[in-house]
Amino acid sequence: MPWQYRLNIGLQVGNTAPRPEEIDARARVAHGFMSRCIGSSGCIDSYYQLALPAGPDDNPAEHVATEPTCVFTVGLTNTGRYDVADLYSDVRDLAIALGQDCIAVGTVDDDGEDKAVNSGVLIGPRASAWGEFNSEYFI
């Protein structure tokens, strides 16, 4: 049975909202990095989306992101070729490359259509400053 993980990779550094071109550049770095890691792993599945916070003309209830966020869902097999330890190591390297304190990695609960994330970890050079993983803030 494959294991699925969902990564929330924030694209904002500091307290200033990034400009659209900065979002695009950082999203490309995140997507390229994860594509290389996943592509060389024999990963069975991956999915990518970009979640954005509500703009001035948007309904905030329709937006769940508090900052621009890349969301990757990654399916791994248990073949041993690329495992969760490898994924966590790659995620830490990506956090460093993006200047992020940490990246949230949730374990996807495969309970039918829901695909909820109820548990996970924060991975990165300053993950401990953010406390424990909280699924309420997870996309």
Distance between the termini: 24 Å
Order of helices and strands: EHEEHEE
Determine the strand fraction and express it as a percent band.
Answer: 25-35%
Give the helix proportion (percent range): 25-40%
Number of helices: 2
Structural class determined from secondary elements? alpha+beta
Radius of gyration using CA atoms only: 15 Å
- Please give the largest β-sheet: 5 strands, antiparallel
- Biggest sheet strand line-up: 2-3-1-4-5
List low-pLDDT spans.
none
What's the β-strand tally?
Answer: 5
- What's the domain count? 1
Protein model, in words:
This protein has two helices and five strands, in the order βαββαββ. The chain has helices spanning 20-39, 84-98, and strands at residues 3-10, 45-51, 69-76, 103-108, 117-123. The protein is globular and about 40 Å long. The chain has one domain (14-64, 75-137). A five-stranded antiparallel β-sheet has the order 2-3-1-4-5. Helix 1 runs antiparallel to helix 2. The chain has 139 residues and is of the alpha+beta class. The protein starts with a strand and ends in a 16-residue tail after the last strand. The model has no long low-confidence stretch (mean pLDDT 75).
